[in-house]
Amino acid sequence: MFPVFALLLLAVASAASVPNQLFILADDLGYGDWEPFSVLPVGSKLRTPNVVQLASEGTRFTEAYTGAPVCAPSRCGLMTGKHSGHCSVRDNGPFLKPNDTTLAEVLKKAGYQTAMFGKWGLSEASASSDRFPTKAGFDVYHGQVSQEYCHDYYPSWMWRNNAMENITANQGASYTSCGANRDKCAWSSDTWTNDTLHYLRNYAATKTANSPPFFVFLSFTSPHAGSVGNNAENDVPVPRVNTTPYKDKSWPQVEIDFAAAVTLQDEQIGLILTALNETGLAADTVVYLASDNGAHNEGGHKYEFFTSSGPLNGFKRSLHEGGHRTAFFTRWPGHIPANRVVNQQIAFYDMMATVADVAQLDKSQVPPNDGYSFLPTLLGRTQDQPAFIYHEYCAPNENPSGWGQAVRMGNWSAVCIGPKPKTDTDIPVCQTPLLYNLATDIGQTKDVSAHHHDIIMQMKTVMKEQHVPGGYCGHA
């Protein structure tokens, strides 16, 4: 093991310094919404040229998984390196525990300066909360903390570090006051994009030989369903729809708005990548891009309209693949191979080990977690697949009043849905999980459990062992 580890350290150390790391997270964007993963015919795909460019300049993962099929527990997995059978947050509603260590706190051990812009959703909306962003490792924060308040695309205030800050343009925001194209108000995603651009440019302008690397987490709230001036989930009310290629389409207005949200977010991603290039930071910055869970079916939007789940079965809140598999992109010029597609299986809870490895942090400084470092894959090497990838969720689409688990093991995928467990002895909650061979049935259309009793027994063992007691439900 030592020679391999030494080679990895040498590969990372060949950069001028420990690299910066930038994670961009979309909200409720489906596996098939970004062009490189879309199954729609050429000419019908939603236009995301900047993500296409990112894919050409780096490596994309076709078999990457989020932390969960819904927002908060997925972010818990990303931040803590724990899967949903161990995470403190297992549905929208609960919060991180005081002893939950975040990515930002781990990277600060490696000397990073840290910033977050956007949706948090993992603590109470109070600066005194134990896991408020600025107490969870982020030196700088500007955004919306509350899950529900994030539904407002034009909020009247946001947190700036530990203080509430009014947004003048959004006082009394409404569909009428913001104008037909909603360009009289300030869209939160524009605000956070500008925050990120300012941070990057200021860092580049003031950088010295002794400057620490940075970790920036940009957490968008689009294309999640939302509203204007309130917390409802009415549509996808982005501004500047009249500037997008969809303005004259004969689609339902909510689908025009959704398409515009995806393309406008792509423009924002492009601005950030351009800023990295223009400031000379690109060569020293690892970029990660993903969505927090599968495609949403809310606010009047239908996930089938643009085949947002691509070839996958299910959508947000599903324990089938469409609920928790994400398109995943990485770039680090000169280190991560360009224009490469890999099928290495990774999950959000692998990010803790990976960012620490990229940061050259001694493993003794990394808290116990459920993940592994996929840095070798990033650097163009081959790795064994993980033993399994685990998810659980309360109120899955397959049975909203029930509970379930999903396990991927190699090309096998098992989905177990049943009643809510009353005790741990009730887990797994099904007698025989559904079983699919993803190598031949990526859409999970044919249950082959009757023919593979040995695989079923292995899957049930993982389901039993990987769940520890925790809240089964918050509010969805």
Tell me the number of helical segments per DSSP (H or I, 4 or more residues long): 10
State the helical fraction.
10-25%
Q: What global shape is seen?
A: globular
Most strands sheet: 11 strands, mixed
Average pLDDT, rounded to a whole number, is 95
Topology:
Layout: H1 2-13, E1 20-26, H2 49-57, E2 59-65, H3 71-80, H4 103-109, E3 113-119, E4 140-144, E5 157-160, E6 163-166, H5 188-206, E7 214-219, H6 253-278, E8 285-291, H7 321-324, E9 325-331, E10 340-342, E11 346-347, H8 351-358, H9 375-378, E12 389-394, E13 402-409, E14 412-419, E15 434-437, H10 453-466
Parallel strand pairs: 1-7, 1-8, 2-10, 2-11, 3-4, 3-7
Antiparallel strand pairs: 2-9, 4-5, 5-6, 8-9, 12-13, 13-14, 14-15
Explained architecture:
The protein has 476 residues and is of the alpha/beta class. 24% of the residues lie in helices and 18% in strands. It has helices spanning 2-13, 49-57, 71-80, 103-109, 188-206, 253-278, 321-324, 351-358, 375-378, 453-466, and strands at 20-26, 59-65, 113-119, 140-144, 157-160, 163-166, 214-219, 285-291, 325-331, 340-342, 346-347, 389-394, 402-409, 412-419, 434-437. The strands form 2 sheets. Strands 1, 2, 3, 4, 5, 6, 7, 8, 9, 10 and 11 form an 11-stranded mixed β-sheet that branches. Strands 12-13-14-15 form a 4-stranded antiparallel β-sheet, covered by helices on one side. α2 crosses α6 (253-278) and α5 (188-206) runs parallel beside α6. The protein is globular, with a radius of gyration of 21 Å. The model is unreliable at 1-16 (pLDDT under 50).
